[in-house]
Each structure stands twice: as structure tokens, then as C-alpha cells.
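thoughts on both lines:
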Amino acid sequence: MAIQMNVDLIFRIAVIGILVAVLNMVLKRSEREEQALMVTLAGMIVVLVMVLREINNLFDMVKTMFNL
């Protein structure tokens, strides 16, 4: 079950990366550099939040395992 969640997380991050890359290219070609930068930053923040949630779940699991 944990392996399935890890693969799912990797696929979600990959999809977000692809979407951000496509939007970035479209915005840069239409000469909207500022919006392209904001899309890139928003994508990075979303992925960072997803990873931080998983790290928090890992720490909770370790606390439960060792009864801390």
C-alpha cells in the first residue's frame, strides 16, 4: 500500500511538472515573462507542499512505530 502511494506521488509531481513546462513555454512565446515566472513558482510551491505532507506522514509513522 505504501508503494502505491509513492508511485502515485511521483506521477502527480510529473504531471504538475509537465503542465508547468507547457504553460511556461506558451506564456514565454506570447511575451508574458512575468506570468511564466509566476506559473513556475506556483508549480514549485504546490510540489513542495505535497512533499512536505509526505514527510510529515513519515515522521508521524516513525513516532507511532517507536511510541514517541
